[in-house]
Amino acid sequence: MPRLRPKVVLWLGIGLLVASLILSYAIPGITYARFGDGSGPTGVDGALVSVLTTLLSTISVYSPFLGSALVGASIVMFYIAKNFAPAPPLPLTDEADGPVPGEPDAAS
Fold this sequence. Notes:
Distance between the termini: 54 Å
Structural class: mainly alpha
């Protein structure tokens, strides 16, 4: 399974926020343009339009919360990657360079 990178999560969150903003502004306009002339949906059309409108409005309501959570998660991922990165190993020295830190001297 591929690992999620902080930049990918950040841009996914920003994209979701922008898409939800566009969707929340587009739903009323599309609905008015389609059914604003008085020819409302009837029968099966009405049910499909009702389901689609409910689905799109539910997505437009909850996607900003998910988008902002993804942006926050990417900030935490950046913080963890920066501050809790594994330390590079200490270089080992030869006897000619001096004693290795943490080992007792052979002369003593």
